[in-house]
Amino acid sequence: MIRGTREWAVAEINCCLGCPYNCRYCYARTAALRRGLIDTTEQWCESRILTEEVERLQPRYQGQVMFPTAHDIFEDNLEAALTVIENLLAAGNRVLIVSKPSVFCITRICDAFQDRREQIVFRFTIGCRNASILSFWEPGAPDYQERLLALGLCFQRGYTTSVSIEPMLDIDDLAGLVDEIEPFIKHSIWIGKMNRIAERVRIDSEEMRREISRIEREQSDERILRMYRRLKDKDLIRWKESIKEVVGLPLATEMGLDR
Fold it and tell me: What pLDDT, on a 0 to 100 scale, did the predictor assign at position 1?
C-alpha cells in the first residue's frame, strides 16, 4: 500500500539529522530515537548536516523526488540544501520541495533556480491559520503569515505551488484556510490527519493532553465526512490516505503519482 510521502515521490532525499522547528508530532524524530540516531528528543533540535548526503551525486530517478522529508530548510542548512537541489536538478529530476517556509530561504531558492523552475514544485505545510495552535504544535517554525508570504512569492515568480494541510490542526477553520490560500495554488492542496498520535506525541503537560483530545475529536469519522462533503468539489483538493480510508476513496497503487 502506498502511504505517506510515497504518494508524492519515488525517492526521499535529506541532508540533515535533526530539525530546530521541533514539531511535536514529528515522525522523523520518533524514527531517529527508535533507530538510536539520537538519545533524547531534545537532541533532535541540535541539527547537524550530513556532509556525505550533501555531496552525493544524484541519479536520474524514475519519477518525482521529494526534498527534504525528515527535516526542514532553515538558514543554518540553506547552503547544504541549495547544493542538494542543484545536484538533483542537474541530473534532470523533478523536485518536490516541501517546507514550513522561511521567506529568506525560499527567496534564495527561487533566485538560484529561476531558470529551472519548471523542474520544481514547492509544497508548503500549513496546518492552520490560528497563531496559538500553530505555535504550540510547531514551536520553532515560521508563523502563518510568513508561510503565506513565501507561498505568494513562489506563485508570483512562476513556480508551481502547492500546500499540504497535513496534519490539519484546526478543522473548524479548514474551509477558511483553503479559501485564503487557493488563489496562490497552481498544483494542489493536500489534506490529511495527524497520524500515530500515541506513538509520536509525548504527553508532557496538561495543555498537551487537552490539545491531543481536541485533535482526536476533530479527526472523528463524523467530522472528517462533514469536512469532505464540504470541500470535495474543489478541483485543487487532494486527500491523503488517512482521509481516503474514512470516506471510502481508493488508495494510491503507484508511488509518486501526486494526484
Answer: 76
Find the mean pLDDT for residues 9-20: 98
Rounded distance, CA 112 to CA 134, Å? 30
pTM listed for this prediction: 0.97
Give the CATH fold of the 7-244 domain: pyruvate-formate lyase- activating enzyme (3.80.30)
Average confidence (pLDDT) over 114-118: 98
Q: How far apart are CA 170 and CA 167, in angstroms?
A: 9
Distance CA 60, CA 121 (A): 17
Count CA atoms closer than 13 A to 101's CA, side-chain side. Answer: 29
Is 15:77 a contact under the CB 8 Å cutoff? Answer: yes
- Kindly tell me the sign of the dihedral angle through the C-alpha atoms of 27, 228, 144, 95: positive
SS (H, E, C) the chain: CCCHHHHCCCEECCCEECCCCCCCCCHHHHHHHHCCCCCCHHHHHCCEECHHHHHCCCCCCCCCEEECCCCCCCHHHHHHHHHHHHHHHHCCCCEEEEECCCHHHHHHHHHHCHHHHHHEEEEEECCCCCHHHHHHHCCCCCCHHHHHHHHHHHHHCCCEEEEEECCCCCHHHHHHHHHHHHHHCCCEEEECCCCCHHHHCCCCCHHHHHHHHHHHHHCCHHHHHHHHHHHCCCCCEEECHHHHHHHCCCCCCCCCCCC
**Spatial separation of the C-alpha atoms in residues 108 and 241, rounded to whole Å:** 33
Give the mean pLDDT of 211-226: 98
